[in-house]
Amino acid sequence: MNNILNEISRQNPQAALEAPSQPLKFQRKQTLYHNGDPAQSVFRVRDGLIRITRMTPEGRILTVRHVMPGDFFGEEAFMDGRREEIAEALTNAHVEAIDPKLINHGDLMTITQSLSRQMQRLMDYEYHLQTGDLRQRVARYLISLSETPLAAENGDGHMVVSATHELIAEGTASTRESVSKIITELRSEGLIESGYRSIVLLQPDELDEISQGF
Fold it and tell me: Are 105 and 137 contained in the same domain?
């Protein structure tokens, strides 16, 4: 299965910038900025996971992309505009804020390369949302999240993803009720265990087969 979220780890995500930056710390579920806020800084994630979302006209939250360690985001600041999306910390996170007016040509190339990699991941993610039924999309999304800072290995060697049914619904363009039904099915089949804000991937290979429609 294509690695939707974590290909950046094979790059050089923490390349030094010449522009000065301001370190910021955010707690899990803390919002960094809202739609309509002034876009005054470009950001880079030092550690943790940031989610970019948008609100639909019907009031539903949809995940646009995940921002991994080393990724830049908040690119609206280059256009002296306002935020078009919402940025939220899915884990405790350390972020750098950078004044776009202080960015030189070399820094701009580094940021452009990061945004280009994210664009490829975004296209992969859009494919994920439009391919297969909800069971496939949920399995695919769980595997993808297991490759992010939202996941950690437990004492039995299984990956545990810190995710609610609501988060999965927003990441699969579905509803919480529909996702809960799929999670119940996967649990009854022995493929996962689920608890409070966590899902243990017991059979990742079988989940991968489901994600591919097998």
Answer: no
CB neighbour list of residue 29: distance below 8 Å, 6 or more residues apart: 88, 89, 90
d(C-alpha 6, C-alpha 9), whole Å: 6
Whole-model pTM: value is: 0.79
- Model confidence pLDDT, tens digit, residues 167-192: 999 999 899 999 999 999 999 999 99
Task: Look at the alpha carbons of 174, 179, 182, 186 in this order and tell me if their dihedral is positive or negative.
Answer: positive
Q: Do 144 and 169 belong together in one domain?
A: yes
152 residue type, one letter: A
Q: Which residues form the domain of 38? A: 7-129
Asked whether residue 122 carries a pLDDT value surpassing 90, the answer given is no
What are 51-80's pLDDT values in tens digits?
999 988 888 888 989 999 999 999 999 987
Of 78, 112, 129, at which residue does a domain stop?
129
Q: Which of 65, 96, 129 is the last residue of a domain?
A: 129
Q: In terms of C-beta density within 10 A (0-12 exposed, 13-18 middle, 19 or more buried), how is residue 199 classed?
A: buried
Instruction: Report helix, strand or coil for 135.
Output: helix
Q: Quote the CA–CA distance of 75 and 65 in Å, as a whole number.
A: 13
Query: How far is residue 66's CA from residue 56's CA, in Å, rounded to a whole number?
Result: 18
